Amino acid sequence: MTSRSNQDSLPLAAISTDDQEPAGAEWATQSRALAAPDESRDTTDLRRGSFNLKERLLNVRALLSFALAFALLGITIWKAEIDLSAIWQRLQTLNPLLYSLAFVVFYATFPLRSLRWRTVLRSAGFPVDDPDARQRWSSLPALTEFLGLSWFANCIVPAKLGDAYRGYLLKRNGQVSFSRTFGTIFAERIIDMLVLFTLMVISGATIFGTRLTRDTRLIFIFGLLLVILIVVGLIAMRYMGPQIRRILPNRLHEFYGRFEEGTLASFQLRTLPGLLALTALIWLGEAARLYLVIEAMGGLGVTLPAVIFIALASSLLTTVPALPGGLGLVELGITGVLVLFQIDTADAFATATLDRLINFWSIVIFGFILYTLSKRK
Q: Taking the model in full, what pTM does it have?
């Protein structure tokens, strides 16, 4: 296992030559050797550079995940006896100015996410400040484009494949290591979860104090379990690298080694406070979006701490990989948590639908346009 000090001083050649595509028959042989039986075909194809997003959208697994998501929505409407005509009447009272502002706030978080990712890449030793890199792949507009494409992928295919697709995009455009890049994205997810859970606990304590209901306890337990898994995983990665390698097939050792390097090198004491602050701003932006949606609906009598709790609790559901973008589960989660705050079921479902028009369906539409026009995809 490479030490932290060695990771920070890795030569750029080591970063830029890993996971590159050999020519001709050598490429095919190496690709087959690297494709371990227990590694998903999606990740293998992304690493080999033969990924086709259209194929993944039209395969059986993706279609079944969409069918399951819409079935969840249908069951929710049926079991909760939601009056669709009442929802339509409620939507007609929507304040268009506040709702448009919710769109602006949501998309304003993307440059913040790009800045955070560039900071993580810099910490992991990627040459993001090189003039040529800034021109081709490490500028904020370029990284924002990669993020938009990856979010589009996450919304149309299951298994959070958009995260791996982002690593693929950086590999293709920057000729950098896919596995090290994937490690930086994993590090981002770790920071996301830690900050999200912290903010959720703070907002929950403000609202409930020690008077937690059964449903809110379940939300906290789910978040706590995710945080524990993350912390245990990081500790294992940091101190048990050789033992982990013994479990993995030999053909995955190099891939895991560089993934481990990218993940651990992303956490530098000098940059961690800034990363945590950026992540807090991003999640507060998510809460601000939902707050504006609720205000556009007339307020519904929900306080700001409650809105923050609802936004963060529903975001936990996007971590479930079986459904594209958490479709179905997130709508159900927002509706259920709003009902906990004594909001009418029809109003709660209308709010969830309006919010998902912003952070799911608009990404599908704008992401498709970006995917069609992008020269970096």
A: 0.78
Phi-psi region of 24 (alpha: psi -120 to 50; beta: other; left: phi over 0): left
Query: What's the pLDDT tens digit per position in 94-106?
Result: 899 999 999 999 9
Task: Count up the domains in the chain and report the number.
Answer: 1
Flag whether 29 is in a domain. no
| Cα distance between residue 143 and residue 134, in whole Å | 10
Is there a domain that residue 24 lies in?
no
What's 176's DSSP letter?
Answer: -
Give the domain extent around 144: 56-373
* Best CA proximity match to 334, nearest among 281, 293, 282, 284: 293
Residue 254, domain member (yes or no): yes
Listed residue (129, 188, 152) closest to 370, CA to CA:
152
Instruction: Show the 3-state SS of 247-311.
Output: HCCHHHHHHHHHHHHHHHHCCCCCCHHHHHHHHHHHHHHHHHHHHHHHHHCCCCCCCHHHHHHHH
Q: Nearest 10 degrees: CA dihedral of 166, 172, 175, 181?
A: 20
45, part of any domain: no
pLDDT digits (tens, 9 = 90+) for 132-146: 999 889 999 999 999
